[in-house]
Design goal:
This protein is α/β, with parallel strands linked by helices. 36% of the residues lie in helices and 23% in strands. It has a single domain, classed as Class I glutamine amidotransferase (GATase) domain (Rossmann fold).
């Protein structure tokens, strides 16, 4: 999203999604909003559209995996991760690396 602050200043405002299947996704959204970042919950593949990056909150990897399969998110997450930054804590990483989802930026 482009935001015009002054007549000659153009600022790009990032939109970050938070995978809202399990874990502390509401806390991640709240922190992003306190930082004035446009944040949204991601539960379905179409929720990835228009995002600049994705946060995958920590949680139990087997549960995250089952829910990602149930919501048809595995392939869309793989495609998203090829072109966008994905941040996830080490606890969530185990499942997504096994599924070759995380191919971009991963920070602890």
């Amino acid at each position: 999203m482009l935001v015009y602050l002054f007549p000659c200043v153009l600022v790009y405002k990032m939109k970050i999604g938070v995978l809202a299947l399990q874990g502390d996704f509401s806390e991640h959204i709240a922190m992003l909003k306190r930082l004035k970042v446009d944040a949204s919950e991601v539960r379905l593949p179409e929720h990835l559209k228009g995002l600049d990056g994705l946060i995958i909150p920590g949680g139990e990897s087997t549960t995250i995996g089952k829910l990602a399969v149930a919501y048809n998110l595995l392939e869309p997450l793989k495609v998203f991760g090829q072109r966008h930054a994905i941040w996830e804590p080490a606890r969530a990483r185990s499942f997504f690396q096994k599924m070759s989802v995380v191919t971009s930026l991963c920070l602890d």
